[in-house]
Amino acid sequence: MHKFNIVFMRNYLLHLKSKSFIALLITPIISVLISAGIGVLVAGSTNNFDNYQVAIVGDSSVKSELVSKDKDSIDTSIKSESTAKKELKKDNIDGYIKVSKENNQYKVNFVGSSSLDSDVKTDLLAIVNQKQSEINVKNSNVTNEQYKQLSVKPAFKSSITDKEKKQKTEQTSSANTASIYVLMFISYFFTIIYASIMSTTIAKEKGTKISEVIFSSVSPSTYFSGKVGAVIALMATQMVIYTGVGVVAYFILNMDPFFNSLFTSQHVLISTFVGNIFSINILFIFIGFVISIVLAAICGSLSANVEGASKSAQPLVFLILFIFVLSFNFVNNGSSDSIFSQVGSYIPLFSSFLMPIRLINHNANLFEGIISLLIAIFFIAFVTYKFSNVYKLFMLNSEEGSFFKRIKSALNNK
Amino acid sequence: MGYLPEERSLFEDLTIENQITYFAELKGRDKNWVKERINSWLQRFEVKGETKDKIKSLSKGNQQKVQLICTLIHEPKLVILDEPFSGLDPVNADLLKKEIIRTKENGAAIIFSSHDMNNVEELCDHVVMLRNGNVVLNGSVDEIRNQFGKKHVFVTTDMSVNELAALDGVSEVVDRGHNRYKITLSDEEYGKALFKAVSRGEYIEEFSQQPPTLDEIFREKAVANHA
Question: Where residue A107 sits, what CATH number does that domain have?
Answer without folding.
Answer: 3.40.190
